[in-house]
Amino acid sequence: MHVKIIALTLAAAIGLLALGCTETTVVREDRETSGITVSGSGSAFGQPDVALITLGVQAEADSVGEARSQAAGAMDAMLTALKDGGVAEDDIQTTRFSVYPVYDYTDNRQELRGFVVDNTVTAKIRTIDDTGDLIDAAVEAGGDLARVDNLQFTIDDPSALEDEARRAAMAEAKQKAETLADEAGVDLGAPRSISESGGPVPVPFAGAELALTQDAARTPIEVGELEVVVSVQVVYGVD
């Protein structure tokens, strides 16, 4: 009797071991988590109505005081040119101000050469057709210390274009979900969750440096079109 018990126990152990070594797939339907997750992207195009220009001055002198004085004079002249051209004071913001020493290196020796003052502002130009003229006026006022770092175009209120792009993104997501549901043999339910990302894609202007190199010519500015891109991720229920 004792021997039989051992044999039965051993057989059961072997059976469990065999089950443990066999791959099994468990299919479970959980109504809380089952569904179809898809993404969609949509875009809309419009004419920019605002220009954002980043410009500034950089002055180098033997002392901090002299460099700061030169930079302040040039920047004041540039800001006056922008304001006289119609840019509101509230649309001008200082984005960088720095003072740092510069050195010369000779025979592995460091010698102080002077100090640099860097002052940068960003201005919003709401009358976009005046962008070229305002750049020229500001750079001329700033003289040899003037610098144009960046110019891009955007839309002040892109909400209408964003709605258009959202509708296109949701239509694409729904089309994908319907195709997947049809192929899977299930009925597509209502969206359970929706997440969104995206917005206006600013249009950069690569020719901003023309303001510094063409003294007699008017800086040419082409606005182009602005694209608003919206991406969505949607989880649809299935029935």
Model description:
- By secondary structure, this protein is an alpha+beta fold.
- The chain has a domain at 50-154: 2-Layer Sandwich (Alpha-Beta Plaits), CATH 3.30.70.
- The protein has five helices and eight strands; from the N terminus they run H-E-E-H-E-E-H-E-H-E-E-H-E.
- The strands form two sheets. It has a five-stranded antiparallel beta sheet with strand order 3-4-2-5-7, with helices on one face. Strands 1-8-6 form a three-stranded antiparallel beta sheet, covered by helices on one side.
- The two termini are 57 Å apart.
| Topology-level CATH name of the domain at 50-154 | Alpha-Beta Plaits
The overall average pLDDT, rounded, is 82
The count of helical stretches stands at 5
What Rg, in angstroms, do the CA atoms define?
Answer: 33 Å
- What is the name of the CATH class of the domain at 50-154? Alpha Beta
Share in β-strands: 35-45%
Given as residue ranges, the uncertain stretches (5+ residues, pLDDT < 50) are: 1-31, 207-216
**What general outline do the C-alpha atoms trace?**
elongated
- Largest sheet, spatial ordering of strands: 3-4-2-5-7
Looking at CATH, the homologous superfamily of the domain at 50-154 is Protein of unknown function (DUF541), domain 2
Tell me the layout of helices and strands.
Elements: H1 2-20, E1 36-46, E2 50-61, H2 64-84, E3 92-106, E4 109-125, H3 131-142, E5 146-154, H4 159-184, E6 188-201, E7 203-204, H5 210-213, E8 226-238
Antiparallel strand pairs: 1-8, 2-4, 2-5, 3-4, 5-7, 6-8
Helix pairs in contact: 2-3
